[in-house]
Amino acid sequence: MTTGKIIKALSGFYYVIHDGEVYQCRGRGNFRKKKVSPLVGDIVEFKAEHKDEGYILSIEERKNEFVRPPIANVDQALIVTSAIRPDFNALLLDRFLVLVEAKRIEPFIVISKMDQLSEDEKAEMEAYRDMYQSIGYAVILSAVSDSASMDLVQSHLADRTTVIAGQSGVGKSSLLNSIDPRLSIDTDEISESLGRGKHTTRHVELYEISGGLVADTPGFSSLEFGDLEVDQLPECFPEFVAVQDGCKFRGCLHNKEPKCAVKAGVEEGSISQQRYDHYLHFLEEIQNRKPRY
Known about the structure:
Keywords: Cytoplasm, GTP-binding, Hydrolase, Metal-binding, Nucleotide-binding, Ribosome biogenesis, RNA-binding, rRNA-binding, Zinc. It comes from Halobacillus locisalis. Monomer. Associates with 30S ribosomal subunit, binds 16S rRNA. Zn(2+) binds at residues 247, 252, 254, 260. By secondary structure, the protein is an alpha/beta fold. The chain has 3 domains: 2-61, CATH 2.40.50.140; 71-216, P-loop containing nucleotide triphosphate hydrolases (Rossmann fold, 3-Layer(aba) Sandwich); 230-287, Ribonucleotide Reductase Protein R1, domain 1, CATH 1.10.40.50. It contains 8 helices and 13 strands. The chain has helices spanning 29-33, 90-102, 119-135, 147-155, 172-179, 238-241, 261-268, 273-287, and strands at 2-10, 13-18, 21-27, 43-50, 53-59, 65-66, 71-72, 76-82, 106-112, 138-141, 161-165, 205-209, 212-216. The longest helix is centred in the middle third of the chain and has 17 residues, at 119-135. The protein is globular and about 65 Å long. The two termini are 40 Å apart.
């Protein structure tokens, strides 16, 4: 038996990399009985007499996994959001950050299309960068034509498995193609009538880029907090975690409780009012979520 990592899943085949060689494998029937499906990113034991005739025998325990996109064992998430076309959306960015934090995956943020902004618009994006950096997030203001920002993005990729997240049309595939032109990942022009991009990426695949593995995915088709509980949400805001020991009550939800350190931080300006408003929005969404049976 040999150990490898699944880098692509397509039409019932799993493509497993081991020592730089890729083996085409099928899953054993007992995976179906156990209702377990191998995922891109899985570390697996496999057996292959030929490169196109292998079988996956077992899957190592995952440190995390996403359902949509279907991928496991992610080290970090590169969250791409555009400054314009589509316009920057802080609520959507915070939603992505919560989804990633809930999986204990380290995010870093790329704000794309900076070269298309006026000076006032650039200043607004720089203020957002400073705010997110003060929380502890890495933020890169990027333009595909700017080699310095591309070098910064690449420096984050080495020795890690990275998933790329972001709404359609923000430039995820363009960013990857700029970093490594050999990929030639399909991109589509934004539909002017809809103001959003078409899904051009069809399946999840890990590409070797800048000394790491990067997943170009069909995107997060579900942005719902399906399995996130109310008491987990505050843990997804690092600036809340930093001060929560100062709250009067353990398990404080930072909403209606008295003597709350988070609310005090918002009042004095050390915690962003906008981030706190987004937190309350997500809290209400989870509290009003219909139960699943």
